[in-house]
Amino acid sequence: MAQLFGKVAIVGIGHIGSSLARVIKRDGLAGQLVALDNTPAHRDKALELGIVDAVTADVATAVAGADLVVLATPIGTYPALAQAMAPHLAQGAIVSDVGSVKMATLRDVQPYLPDGVHLVPGHPIAGTEHSGPEAGFAELFRGRWCILTPPEGTAAPAIEQVTALWQSAESQVEIMEAAHHDRVLAITSHLPHLIAYTIVGTATDLETTLQQEVIKFSASGFRDFTRIAASDPVMWRDIFLNNKEAVLDVLQRFTEDLTALQRAIRWGEGDKLQDLFTRTRAIRRSIIDARQA
Amino acid sequence: MAQLFGKVAIVGIGHIGSSLARVIKRDGLAGQLVALDNTPAHRDKALELGIVDAVTADVATAVAGADLVVLATPIGTYPALAQAMAPHLAQGAIVSDVGSVKMATLRDVQPYLPDGVHLVPGHPIAGTEHSGPEAGFAELFRGRWCILTPPEGTAAPAIEQVTALWQSAESQVEIMEAAHHDRVLAITSHLPHLIAYTIVGTATDLETTLQQEVIKFSASGFRDFTRIAASDPVMWRDIFLNNKEAVLDVLQRFTEDLTALQRAIRWGEGDKLQDLFTRTRAIRRSIIDARQA
């Protein structure tokens, strides 16, 4: 790949930030790659891994002269970060992010950006339950979707540059409205995580002996939930706090459906159970057909 | 391995039954291996795969002279099967099963068995979302638990023979009371499946456009649930109908916990969310430490 940017600043060199840094390094996409991170251990590790050219804890140093700034920190940090970096952003710079709630980026970042700075929010649909710069890898985004939600009126070349970045990461890029993104992700990602956190939490409240057996026999289904429920706590706290309406709406539907199923079990309505279980099987087939399995 | 049994009859040559048949064949554990199945396609496939010596749709033919009969059909078939095979069981025969609810085996099979026939119910904690004889494989049970729940007074040699069978399948065998098994599995397996079926069901009720996007972006969490929710519909209908009390009890706990979490989101109580998400992460670590991940 040709160089896409002069200086790039990645804000937060954790699992996703460090994976993106590895892509940028591997493909020579930036003239200079700087990581901004508050955690000394993350800065040291990023340097040691050789995935960035420089590290800093100073916002001005990180973003000054950058052609692209990518926020890869929990969403709750956005307002303070946007405010701190705004005075130091270069004319024509692109600000992007990798957060899971796109209305939050519009609400918490856009108001602070000076004229002449382009906002192209992004969300790579990728990740594992691991955290930190050592957990990243360049292939994380391969074959996955990256959704961009530029506000109306965003300059086309800025969108194209961010698109090229994610295509270099071997992602498929999709442009979408932020509000629609948040509704879709509330179903595909936020609700599943909430449910997984809940069920694993329910198990942690069991008496000790029973809890040990739950761990021992977890391969029977529970295990799959624990992987999801091992995702980063602060990142997920911020997702739920910032996509409240969409999450509460889909949670309401889920609860109604669960209550109906509970009633079917109580009254021994086997046909209702079998009907649902047959319908859900078809959805799995669609996902396999869509090559997302 | 040495031969453990003369004639063995496997009732239901599906995913689990055929996997067990493959183990028995591979290790030469039986003098003769017969499959009883109502589905002609399953019988044909089992013969074609060479995983059994003979197939039949006749209960008497299958179990006559058998040293071991293993039920590997949905739990709902047990009463009729037990009744049909009882008059043809040999003195000293062992009857076992692979069902996910062990109280059901005691309730629905034990009353029909003649004196001198040994009941050793079993449950291999293994399986995939696939069904049918072609989906089985001998290594399915490797490194997994198999729980046996023999009723009080069961002859020790019968328990030892069934234990040896599962050890040959490379499973670790655990002896447990049936009621306790059903309570543990309600948490580790039945509730997770119920939740997964529900969430995938909720998604199938969405308008078509949104549903297509859910499939497209399923890698963000939803996908993991669809794998579980693709499990055999009849098998799972019977599990819920037959472990009603334990499932409803753990479901009640889950619903309370989910409601508390819903309230925390609504009121923006970030610390409560973060606390829970931190606790659930520790459970994942325990599962990795227990080598069940």
Structural account:
The structure is a homodimer. Chain A contains twelve helices and eight strands. Chain A has about 290 residues and is α/β, with parallel strands linked by helices. The mean pLDDT of chain A is about 95. The first copy, chain A, has an eight-stranded mixed beta sheet with strand order 3-2-1-4-5-6-7-8, with helices on both faces. Helix content of chain A is about 50%, strand content about 15%. Chain A has two domains: about 170 residues, NAD(P)-binding Rossmann-like Domain (Rossmann fold); about 110 residues, Orthogonal Bundle (6-phosphogluconate dehydrogenase C-terminal fold), CATH 1.10.3660.10. Chains A and B meet through helix 7, helix 8, helix 9, helix 10 and helix 11 of A and helix 7, helix 8, helix 9, helix 10 and helix 11 of B.
Keywords:
homodimer, 293 residues, alpha/beta, Rossmann fold, 6-phosphogluconate dehydrogenase C-terminal fold, 2 domains, eight-stranded mixed sheet, globular
Calculate Rg of chain A over CA atoms: 21 Å
- The structure class of chain A reads alpha/beta
Largest chain interface and its two residue counts? A-B, 90 and 91 residues
List the uncertain runs of chain A.
none
Oligomer, anyone?
A: homodimer
Distance between the termini of chain A: 29 Å
Fraction of residues of chain A in helices? 40-55%
Largest sheet of chain A: 8 strands, mixed
> What would the average pLDDT of chain A be, to the nearest integer?
95
- Strand count of chain A: 8
Domains of chain A, number? 2
Instruction: Identify the CATH class of the largest domain in chain A.
Output: Alpha Beta
Binned strand content of chain A: 5-15%
CATH fold-level topology of the largest domain in chain A: Rossmann fold
* Biggest sheet strand line-up of chain A: 3-2-1-4-5-6-7-8
Overall body shape of chain A: globular
What is the N-to-C succession of helices and strands of chain A?
Answer: EHEHEHEHEHEEHEHHHHHH
**CATH second-level architecture of the largest domain in chain A:** 3-Layer(aba) Sandwich
